[in-house]
Amino acid sequence: MLALIAGTGDLPPALVVRLPARPLICAMEGFQPAITPELTFRIEHLGSFLNTLHARGVTEVCMAGAVTRPPIDPMIIDEATKPLVPRIMAAITQGDDGALRAIIAIFEEAGFAVRAAHDIAPDLLPDAGVLSRKPVTIDTRQDAVTAEQTIAEMGRADTGQACIVRGGRVLAREGRTGTDAMLAQFAPTHDLLWGAVDGLGAVLGSAAEWLSGADGEPTDARAAILFKAPKPDQDRRADLPVIGPQTAKGAVAAGLAGIVIEHEGVMVLGLDEVLSVLDAAGRFFWVRPKGGA
Question: At residue 7, does pLDDT exceed 50?
Fold first, then answer.
């Protein structure tokens, strides 16, 4: 039997509808998934939770959806969890990938097989190639190389999985708040803003092609690319990157030229809608093989 440990977001429900039998839906307290959990637990009761899974006949677990690090109350750690405390505390002090590796190891040592979301739903990994009507340009291909190198650097620091690049320059790196929040900082608050920017460019020419802040920092991301990929060498059984229609809408709102994702490294929810949004706005969508030109 499979237990789906569900976080927030659209991935958990997408997995449930693809499974031949409904899994045991579990959730950590404080993180309400989009599907109703049958079993909730606290990190302070992880040992008891593992025992409950065994009692319910669970042999496999899949972790899917967004979960941030919960606060831990030492006063309510139960007896079954006390032996795990040193490992839990070590896990929460590490970066995201390190923490997930430690938690996965705890589940495996308790006798559970840990399954990746994309193993359950392989159709969420789209085929390689430019899937949009709009093609990619030489500039896009060059920016994708810069972006891939940036993600590798971010991965070594165990930080984000996405960045925005234009003309060989990294405009933004994904932080704790995620990809959509990164895109939102470049979305104009009113459509008239783009009209004003374009009008200024017409008057001043190429010198005003991009508005800049006081220190030369970009205040817009028009014609940039969003690049998303997993961290190098991360355990792909949890925290594989995900995008969906909201990401596509955010990229359009920010004026980006399009989206590039790593082939077999990023899951796409609602691919048809993603392509519809990007095609309607004349943006591209490229599923790029790792290291591709």
Answer: yes
